[in-house]
User: Fold these one by one.
Assistant:
Number 1:
Amino acid sequence: MALPDWVTTCLSQPVHYAICELGFEKKDTYDINNILSGNGEVCWQAVTEHVCYLESDQSVDFIKSIRLLGPVCESVNSYFKSLTKEQFVIQYASWFHWTNCTEVFLEVFDVLQSTQATEVALGLMKLTSCLERALGDVYLLKGNDCPFLLRDLLASEQLADIFGQAVMNVLRVFIGSPHGLNLRNVLWHGFASPQEIPAKYCAMLLFLTAGLGQLLQTYLLQNKGVLVHRPYVIFVSLEELDAFPDLNNEILSIAEELVKLSSFVLKIMLPFWIAALTAFKQNRYADSVILLLPQLEVGLRLLFTTTNKCPNRLLTAESSAFYTTFDEMLAKHLDNEEVNQLPVVLEEPAMESDFLWDFLNHQEGPRIRDRLSHGEINLETFPREIANQIVGFAITILCRFSDGDMFSLKEHMVIKPLMNCASCYRSRFHPISRLKKQVLECMKSIHLWPELATMPEEQIQKLKGLEGNDEANTLILMTSEILSQLQHCMPQNCCSSDDPINGVLIERLLVELCDTRICTLYSPRPVLEVVVVLRKMSAQCHQVSQQVLAGAGLRCAQWLNRTLRSRQRHNYGRMLNSIKFLSPVLQLILLLITLELVSVHSVCKKNPSDYQQYLKFLKSVLQYTENLVTYTSPEKNKWDETMELTKKTLIKIRKISDRKLMLVHLAT
């Protein structure tokens, strides 16, 4: 893919005009004292009178409003430049406390004093995400479910009640409306180059945020309210995100060379890439990712428009159409139902699509872009681990979309490990991947069961409730027979005809089956439907295991301390009986889940009637596991019912297995 030097902007003509020209048409000098009181408070009435309305329906006339507000923004920008940092802090810092991220807004003031266009754009992206989060907190003073989209949040009745509709209309001129400047979306989706964002709009939004703080303080005093801030998202299990090795300065230096040569990078966006790598070197991890994510989007948009032969989609859409964003670029089909060619390009290797879905889209993944752009993450504590993965991914994609002249860089000894990691990447947050993880975690829990009955065997035999020992042995035998039937589905090194109920072998089998590569990209609805059922089954099995571990441990301690009443001793005996067969039964169910998973794509191609019968069977096993959770709970302790229910379920599983309506050979 040759670098399109002809691309001088990613803003369509109307959007470019609105952002870069419209607000500069009026040459009047606006007196800052018109909108600023003697004590530094914003005179909102003087600001709101610059917003114009259409005669037809009294909706905001965005074109006229941008034109009229242009000189006001210029005046605010000049005013801020005239202040020292100390003066700004004394006069305005307290008005940013309502945002819960005062330091970010003070940093934006510093940015306005510089001539670095990239820093202004970064400051504006951080400002809009923090402002959106704060406005959401304010919304919750009156509403329940905060709107996900900034557009809907700014148009809400709740915020209009608190700040006034006229004030909200001023904000909508700058952010949140596709008919206005829409600065937040234009930047976060990678459409604007650094030089295309006037600093005066950043200054104006900083000014307006302070003004909102003044209005909110008055509202809270009058209504005796307290603003509660929602907690930030905290990333746990960061090791799950570990795809690339730690990036050192040598790798980053090579990346800086790659950026200048790769066809993935538009030349007008080069300053963003350099700034992102510099921020990572300086341990400013949130800044690095905020700068990089929009550039990954615009680079993929360039690929998308090239491979799908729709060059016009490289530009911002008008207010009447949709942007070409990550969601559409990673979809299977275009809006005209034709096959999207971008995933085809990215499928060699499949890593790019899987990685992007994992980090950006899957609901159980980190959803980095959404959470950063909507202000859900504490920027000061953003984890290096996540930034390392995003930058590492960016470097591999720079290498992939580069020409032969860069061979020496791509083959460099510090770059090759990154490329190797990329080629081995598998989805970690697709529901199929999460199911694999669930199964293995449940098996680890079951492996703790042998440690339960620690009392001497002769004492166990004294317990009443062990009369059902023969029935337990029968259930174990039935489980063993079913496992033997499953031998044809198992890898040879994990089979044991002598002892099919062998926890070590079953665990080895589960690990091997879970290591089977299963296509996760664009899983059809029937596959996802089955996976939902299988995940519920696995979760129920895990809960049963946890309940047995907790309950048996407690009862054993009570037995040894002689604090069990007669009825409790009898019940404890039945529990120990049930544990004998429940362990192999739960392992059998985990095995069934995993076998179904690795063959799920084949099964879901069956005719509708067979598929429905198959799904009905799975749901019946799910019902069994749900009942087990109830029966084995400390409140119920229904061990006789557990035994009877298990017997019925094993009979059903054996019938289905015999008729081959459920299991599919792994080779098919």
Number 2:
Amino acid sequence: QDLQIISTDENQVFVAVQEWYQTDTYNLYQSDPQGVYYSILLENVRSTKQPEENVLIDILEVRGVKGVFLANQKIDGKVTTLITYNKGRDWDFLNPPEVDMNGKPTNCKPPDCYLHLHLRWADNPYVSGTVHTKDTAPGLIMGAGNLGSQLVEYKEEMYITSDCGNTWRQVFEEEHHILYLDHGGVIVAIKDTSIPLKILKFSIDEGQTWSTHNFTSTSVFVDGLLSEPGDETLVMTVFGHISYRSDWELVKVDFRPSFPRECTDEDYESWELTNLQGDRCIMGQQRSFRKRKISSWCIKGKSFTSALTSKVCECVNTDFLCDYGFERSAPLKPESSKCFADFWFNPEAPPEDCVLGQAYTSSTGYRKVVSNVCEGGVDLQQNLAHHMCPLIAPKGLQISIREESLAVRPGEDITFIVQQEQGDVLSTKYQVDLGDGFRAIYVNLTLTGEPIRHRYQSPGIYRVSVKAENVAGHDEAVVFVQVSSPLQALNLEVVPVIGRNQEVNLTAIILPKNPNLTVFYWWIGNNLQPLLTLESFLVTKFAETGDVRVTVQVSCGSSMLQDSKVVHVFDNFHVLPLKFTKHLDTYNPDIPEWREDIGRVVTRLLAKETSIPEETLLTVVKPGLPTAADLHVLLPANQPKKKRSITSDKRIAAIKQALNAHNISFFLRGGYWVLVTLADSSSDSQRIGGGSGYWAIVVLFVICLVAVGAFILYKFKRQ
């Protein structure tokens, strides 16, 4: 539904994606170094919609220490704060302080109680917002939040950490605006309130003690805080107004006279970065920083550098995350590092840009975290399987019109763009027929992106076709152009396999559902004379076996859309009705892509388990609820047509045996497996084709979620 770019640092893109089932949350994804392939990092990050349709995502990059992020996750209405030290590979809750600002026990103990922070940006650009970090003050984080089982909107107590989130201390009971001076050596805090103020607070020991300062004799309504340029500055300005009708008042506050000298090496001490588990190797290295001693009263100055030393570590499992198309079984548990291929992803499939004669590698399921500098040790990317690029038949051929209109006026220019999703392009020829007598053969048509410009002189309907063909196979794309000019969406629903001379229902689903004066044009095969209806469906039969292309165009005024599907017509085949448990209905988006992917997954698993050729099996998931499907068992191309097939009987027995043995399952997001089993064998299957032969057996699929509340999320990237 929406995509927000979070970060593009260090040759990597972080994006927040709102998927079809989400309303006030987004899923966080991370790219590979090229920014092309994305893997999920964290689900259900809270979002807030602002005026003018602006969206704020509750995620914050902690400045000063690369790889550290804070995020607020919202599940079942409950918001909790998480922290990562390795760019989202692992997430943990924030440890609560043992005592409050008055030294009294907080009685906040994990796993029932943690620290949670508001991660809001300030509407006013001259104040700090709810969480404050700085590049030259690594490890220093100050934010507003509360202790408890979840984040509470009206609680904005102030907490601080000086070791990058390992230990926290409460410093104020109410929210304050924060300003760091002298590389965080001085922390200035002014209360966030609507009443006038004349007192500010400051700390020179990382918030352990606080002093007050009267910055003006007359109370002012504070509008913002500014510091002079440079991280080393000790000069700030408070600006505001005495009354709502007065001009701005600017008050300069200079902390330089409070410090007698510049710091020397003896005034600093070192601290080592660790995560919440105490690991010192983070992002492949041990890093130590220096900070001013609590007892030292001196200025860090312009020459101060916070980084002290770094040491490269040996690689371990936690230095790797799941590659594109893979997910971890338990994303919030660091010890659960095994990655499984998603149900929609085939790791051994050649890449789309695979060229004949070249080699490619299939992923092991892991890749090193970007910017991780570890060396040696564990390498989860080793033992990559090497494959030679095969000659791939063209697939996913498409014809589009640059002007984005399927209806033009006579004499008007029209530009055709031919695109091919998969298959070799160097050895492929493209036969183009524009329908008015113009025919041509192109090479490298989809590689160069060369458009085809044309102009139709006479009114009419023109069948424009492109056939892509190489030694491995061919594909064809068809578009019908009306020379005479748009609906929002159209999808042609048709059963992909049908028996000869059997009735088939062709249904066009359009949005909006009931537009006025809509005409439906139906093309069956290569017939240039369409069937016209005012209803959104057509019942027809196919007298000959083979592949028949069905195309529908919907015209409403000057708006026109098209969809096209291929129907396979056979003399004999068998249909086995399938059904799923009700769990799947909850997560069924009822869109064609989802139904096609689920059907393809079931077909591939059955073919692999039973050794039945995949081209003789076809699983068709039906539209609507409850979720149901038909398994079409087709005769092999070289097998004679018979009323009763021994080979078919053996194949059905093999399918039944595989289901009874619980050998058919696939992995879903969230750490759950979908198990496919044989539920009942008392009903009859259906045999399609001529003759009186009949055989009976039914296979019902029951998809059982291993744990209650499993989360099925359909991804719209398909292979």
Number 3:
Amino acid sequence: LQVSLEADGPRKAKSFHITIRKIEEINIERLLNYLKGSAQLTGEIQTCVTILNTVLNYKPRNNFAVVKRGVFPETNDRPKYLYGGIELKTGFCQSMRPAIKLVLGYMIVNVDTCAAVFHPDGSLLDYVAKILGKRNVEELRRGISDSERRNLERNLKGLIIKVIHRGEKQTKYKIERLTSQAADFTTFTNKKEGVEMSVADYFAQTYNHSLEFKSLPCLVVKKNLFIPMEVCDILPGQKYEKTIGDKAKADMIKFTACKPQERFDKIENCIQNIFKHNEDENLRDFEIKIDPKMMTVDGRVLKSPTVMFNANSKQQNIFPVQNGRWNPKDLVLLRTKPLHNWSVLVLADRRSCPMEQVKRCMIGLKQKLIEFGMEVGNDPYINYENPQGNIESSLQISVQKAHNNKSFPPQLLIVIIPRKPSPLYGEVKMIADTKIGIVTQCILAEKLRNPNNKSLWANIGLKINAKLGGHNCNLIKEELSTIGKVPTMIVGADISHPGVGQKDQPSIAAVCASVEPNATTYYGRISVNKQIRNETIECLGEMISDLLKAFYEKNKVLPKRMIFYRDGVSEGQFRSVLNREVIALKNAFDKIYQKDPPNLTFIIAQKRHHTRFIPINRRDADKLGNCIPGTVVDQSIVHCNEFDFYLQSHSGLQGTTRPTHYYVLHDENKFGADEIQNLTYRLCYLYARCSSAISVVPPIAYAHLLAARARLYPTIEVPGEQNCEESESISSIPLVSKELAKVMYFV
């Protein structure tokens, strides 16, 4: 085919030669056989599903703005602006998936809301004022500082704008950078007149336009073409590609939080007025018919476990009947560690964080630690240091000040940092973990404004006891009978990929494994994948071998069963990850075990999906309208050949709660559905950092934290061609010795 595109603004007319080539024929019959339960999932069946999704989404993706898998129709709703002036838009996404056990032979369409961040359309000056935190545009008349100019350039680079000073001729341009000087000092050679003149003078002379904001820098587009900001508008529909800050994230959570009934009403309205499946000619041509009604599925609620604290306290057993949560007030922790030597390092100025305020807060924290049952020594020494100075030296000084009781080494350093996000946090953790070898607990300075915030001290106290090696709580033996009968290792694994602006960084894999029968103590290992964004843990065998040795050192016996929870894998990668990682685990077993290797159960946990549930009867819901913790759906949505289930183990504080989707891909332990579902749910109550059930099993949560921590270390490098089997997993961080690694890897 020969295709021509007409000229559009700066874009010239172009002609293209297009070739359409037949690649293969897709047999939909094989997908139908899979849906009926008579065939296994193959790559060809996944291709069929991909094709059907292309047909399903073709029309809406051509009619509306698109970001990834979501479509964003224009609405009359009031715009929602996040911190920094970026605009939040809500849209919808849909996907077709293999269907259900109860009605064989069908696909289902999953529809949900989604959100994306865009540059606001309209006046560029308004956007500039919001980026720089100005109260209004008038404050820009005084000009901006050089640091503000650099910040502005980072945010505006790549943005498409149009000029509005030429009447109907509104040419479009892409911003490449900003000038270093203001418009009245930015000069160029006017070729028509052969003189050098400023941009401000040129606009006054050529367009009779006297610039009102001549103190602002100009935009640089094309090859040194200078345009004043005040004559530019931002074109609509431009996604914000950069990482958003914590304040903008907080705004985003607040705006997108939507109660279940409201969310489901929006989805139904979208099906009727946006996707309009029954009016889609593409679906009609493929003879695809979609029932617009929501599916009704059966669910059940698992019994909440009994959480055990200190046997000597009056509140020995706490039954968390209040929506998956329990109040840490008046609780004595199960097993505490004494705190003999500690100190406080304040990396904030005395005006925002006065000495007396810090002292009162540390008294409150100490009192809570004592109430938890911890033995706490003297009040901590409080040391103020310059946050712009040498952080390693500041930490070393504070560690020395913590050495009150000479019979014990320094144990804990409380670090007060001025704000979040802050590079100080990463620097503190990196130095403390890899150079000094001491436990740290960072606290934001703003949190110290209320010394009587007992819930804050309780939350921090739980973290401190766990970091020192204590056990906060446990379940009664009957609740963990599944893993208590024979030595069992619970494992969680995750891969952290580089984010926006981190393209040169590697993918980091983390594995955490329980080393005690009650599954409350975990050791961890990290490694760096050679291939960036590889979803397979390349050094898994070596990491597991290391953890099996640690299990043996702790228990004098190797585990006879391993339950492996794997996070961060999409459905299209199931078979690849399963084949490679199960083989890696088996190879590790062969090297460690002389005979009788452990039975392996391999489970994928998915949190990034768009399936939501709402109880039909209001009495079955919590106060927000969500399903109550312990809700399991396993009989209707999942495929007949797959052992998988949705589990909502936690209680949401706002919005619609998202269940976790667990796929049991390999099971040598021959667990029944009740066994694995109850075990998974009960494990969610054993997370050391809070007093509630969490949304995913703790070893995955710990692996996620460990991978995120490892990314703070600048010494991590992508491994070369060495064989993973010949190196030690700890050596992925060159500065960490095995002695110091105990601080990092003990939870």
Number 4:
Amino acid sequence: MPSRKFADGEVVMGRWPGSVLYYEVQVTSYDDVAHLYTVKYKDGTELALKESDIRSQSSFKHRKSQSSSSSPSRRSNTRSRSRSRSPGRPAKGRRRSASQSREHKDDKKKTIQEASLALPVLLKPSENNTKRYNGEPETTEKNDTSCIILEQKLKPDLEIKRVLEQYSLRSRKDDKKKEEIYSEKKTFVAVKPVEKVPTKTKELEFGGRIGTFMLILFLPATVLYLLLMCKQDDPSLLNFPPLPALESLWEWRVFGIFLLWFFLQAVFYLLPIGKVVEGLPLSNGRKLEYRINGFYAFILTAAAIGVLLYFQFELHYLYDHFMQFAVSAAAFSLALSIYLYVRSLKAPEEELAPGGNSGYFIYDFFTGHELNPRIGSFDLKYFCELRPGLIGWVVINLAMLLAEMKIHNLSVPSLSMILVNSFQFLYVVDALWNEEAVLTTMDITHDGFGFMLAFGDLVWVPFVYSLQAFYLVGHPTTITWPVAAAITVLNCIGYYIFRSANSQKNNFRRNPADPKLANLKFIPTATGKGLLVTGWWGFVRHPNYLGDIIMALAWSLPCGFNHILPYFYVIYFICLLVHREARDEHHCKQKYGLAWERYCQRVPYRIFPYIY
């Protein structure tokens, strides 16, 4: 095993990823497995660097001393020459003026060289501008003409520089030394991004190993408890439901129907329809391709359901065996999680999730060890994120609507059931129509695919998010039209905030130079990305979460106020989003450093304006 070169606490020069610029950093730790140093820049940014990207400060001082235009030996030879004046030499006074002229030209040449080295950065606003990041004055307007003006000012000086270099009296040896010193700076514009390898996860979330182990047991128990409560005549919290017999929770026919549903959605996913887009760059710079056809899969599913109803298939079968379907989905998600963890043990280091590489079995099993597990071009995480669970949610709501009509002998569904189905139908259709936006979420870019996402996508979303519709079947609630109108307005407000905020974020991430976004201001960061400080993102830090919570409340209000059970979703969702916001805050502070602190000063409220 190679020994480490730099000690903890040592101040060295570290190269910024994606460039050849070196900055003063302090070594904080060293990973013996990945052979990476964790260094801290002066602005608080922490990055993992290879040993080849770190140099001692003395090496830079040594290089600087080599850049002298004349060596001591040359100066001594000049002093030892004869003082007699040859006929071709100018007068003494003229010699002094000529020397001063050369010094003046040298000074001017030096200034031009420094300016020319800075020019590529100034002429490319989209590149990583570390001067602005470190607190110097900056502009957030995209159509900035300062770069063009500077180029025009430097053009005559650059021409002088070219002439001076052509007729330089310096020796070729000195020119070669200077060329070696600046060779990296001259080529930094075309340099390839540094390949970053994920390091071991040091900061454990969700309560660490004990917390994740408890969640693996607690999440299925919570789903079982909620569904049993909805079946009771009095679903109050103090009225704990009796535990059912184990044999009543499992039926192979139900499990077969669930498998048929899962693989039907997989077939729709593989159909060569819809556009293919690239995701965000991974840690190694590679971009994965994704086929965007979720909305087409939804249309094909709706057609298949229509055919079943035409042939008088009783869709309320889902309601009658709802508990068994939930248990089947939980068993399948557990089996899928085991498969995902086993295959991740053979995955390359650069394909592991940054948050699920702790080395602890339980923690990595829960959070997901591999970031983007694929079977060929079939992306398992991306498929489960929107297809079986989200589309299944709408199918379950429809089954509850039909069950309500059959059980209560209604010719039309109740107004409460119509509102719940309509609101949640709109939410699912919006997610599938804007499917490409999911590629920028934390689930895709940061979290691995393990039990947390597998259980959440296949069990929690379809069987807990449909809790209001399931509740209304056994506990019908009557609401008036004015109340229904008020709830509809509330849902529309939440949806507008949610969709417009997400659209602003996704469009800005995809193409910050889009003329349609010219009115948006942002804080530049050292990563090359910008933090929006206008629009919804200048109102609160997570306006999409605010819209989500408002919609969740609107989904629960049609159930009335007799019991708190239908409000479990909005209570859970607030806790979920507050926790996720804390995770976002931690990751962004590490990623953006000083720029994130400036953003928090500019936008002080996290989710709820003037409250939190």
